[in-house]
Sequence to fold (119 residues):
Amino acid sequence: QVQLVESGGGFVQAGESLRLSCAASGWTASLGTMGWFRQAPGKERTFVASITWYGISTYTDSVKGRFTISRDNAKSTVYLQMNSLKTEDTAVYYCAAASTRRRSDYDSWGQGTQVTVSS
Fold:
């Protein structure tokens, strides 16, 4: 089992930056792809970004050029640097992980951290 704990959310003005962190614990020796999702009020949870064990990253179009995902495998931690934040980025951000590198799906989820961007 892998447990995920997010941190770094908060309240910012449009144009400002935030850095989210997600630390994995438990059985992390075979940790696979890690990612970030978000859920705005009244909307479904959607994909934001992901990064494989080897560092290959993927982004949803709306955050390309503004968000950067990275990971520190030694610390079993994934980060999401969010720059030039917009009001539409307001959401609860969830960290997700594939507990093994053989998995193609996410089987571990964090509790979420709130990001609020005001105009």
Observations:
- The longest strand covers residues 18-26.
- The chain has no helices and eleven strands.
- The chain has a mean pLDDT of 96.
